[in-house]
Amino acid sequence: MNLSTRWWYAFAIWPALALAASLVDWSWRGQSFAAEITYHFFGDLCVVLAVTAVPFLLQRQTRRPEHLQALEAELHPHFLFNTLNSIATLMHEDVDAADEMMAKLATLLRRTMDRQGAVEIPLREELEMLEIYLDIQRTRYADRLTTEVAADPAALDVLVPRLLLQPVVENAVRHGISRRTGAGHIAVRAECRDNTLRLTVTNDGAGWPAPASGGGLGLSNTRARLRRFDRRCTFELREGGDRGAVASLSLPVRQ
Fold this sequence. Notes:
alpha+beta; about 20% strand; two-stranded antiparallel ribbon; about 60% helix; five-stranded mixed beta sheet
């Protein structure tokens, strides 16, 4: 029997018990039967409605992290497969670089496991893990990729879903930088304005194919996680002017 069911059973008999007590009290004090019933019935009804709402509010609060954890669990093998595939490709080109990339992947996974169970983390930790991922990609692409990460100090303590930025950056690498013949650049920026955290991931590569379609698993997962995190979150993809693409995310400030 779950929490809400137990509370329903407990409070379903409250009006009956209260009514019985009222009748005893009425018989002793000689009050008007109709007035006594009306007073106690409506008073007890308000109490019952208020108290029985508590377990549903609690379940609503616990359900959100559970959904976020499920979506994050879906993201992990997707990310791991793509990274290992990159290492396998690099093995045929530069064994030392592939070995270095594997070591950095182990570091990233260790950092991820250190926060196992935490579905929301401060942005500063998210950026620290993102920097390890970017280091992996810089190892793979060598002089073909440069990166920049900039965040306002006021934004660093804002809570975000864990591994929020990694799939967005991954798409920028795969569909932007990897399809570009020359060197490419990825910029990640974070700022707080009007009680809103604004995140942008910009690349000057080939852009995403058909950005309006919403992308693959990584981006659809990101959208779903943002909806679970807070309904006010937004996620937009657009072409980046002459070339490249821009991903814009906004989240209400929660610390």
